[in-house]
Amino acid sequence: MTRKINRTRWIRGLALAAAALSLCLGSMLPAHYAEAQELRYQRRSILDFFLGRRYIDENPQPEMRDQPRRQQQPRRRPPAQKAVTPMRTAPVAPSQPVVQKLDNAQKILVVGDFLAGGLGDGLTAAFETSPGVVVEARSNVSSGLVRDDYYNWPGELPKMIDELKPAMVVVMIGANDRQQMVTDAGKEKFRTDGWFSEYQRRVLAFGKEVTSRKIPLLWVGLPAFESDSMTADAVQMNQLYRNQLESIGGEFVDIWDGFVDENGKFIVTGSDVNGQQVRLRTTDGINLTQAGRRKLAFYVEKPARRILGTQASPDLVRLDPGNLPALTLPNNPVEHTQPISLSDPNLDGGAELLGASKIPPVTLTKSPRDLLVEQGEMAPAPAGRIDDYRMPTLKTTAEVSVK
Question: What domain range includes position 186?
């Protein structure tokens, strides 16, 4: 019994020593190797270790060798991109050269409110290549014919005409006039009969400031607006402008169709002067974009060129000693042809006109045409023709009996 107990103690001591040895060896092996061995022999017991029995794993793993670990190189951060400074380039030259205006160029005076200012820009671009035309825009953004206390157009227009001596005056005004008017009789609210009566008088007097000086006058109508009420008022005011201008010899320029669709509704985008779809109005639904200003001037350009005539032609040039064509005669006298008088009958060596024929012989008989025209006589129709109305001759009784 005692021997059996000692044997048991000896086995336990060996087991403890083996366990301690395995722990020491495991601590000395690399971590990944120890983990592999633990995974491979995790089902082996102490008795299997001492008795030499080996445990075969169902899914054997390949033997892992201690390989030197690769040193991970620190990741390089991409170099910080330098801020790119935009290079300033020279302004792009216009596609068409700037035409120098003539000293005697005729002036177009454009007056009115903020719409007239945009019209002036458009007309300047329209006549940019015309050396005989200069556009002078004298507009006041918030002005009109109602608030003469803010800007007195009837008093300022004669001064501008005397200063510039224009060949034509273009007026576009009225977008700011939808407000109360102060008259001699008192205050008149907008859209009342008294307001329209006084406004009609002011439009007529303003137009006469131009036509009384024998200067052509073009009055440009208002366009449609995004507001329905403003559009309705513009229609009524355009009718008033048209009626008053015709009575004093001015010309009304209707631009309405250029800024509405086929149903007469306000549009933001539409066709420009080249037929391309562009934005014509700004976000407020009132002002015009650059393309809209050019389209506005397109309607005024045609009557303006008609009135100014050849002075508005782009082909008009200044003839000075620097650009006169050569008019000298050739130096070689042999090559020079002597002038011939058109009244000289022997200029071609003959006395008769080219193509002249001899006098036809005189005939005594008259043609059927002469008989019909001179005497009214017509040749008898041939027998059997549809216009032969002669009755057939009847045979006598004696002729019939002989047969």
Answer: 106-312
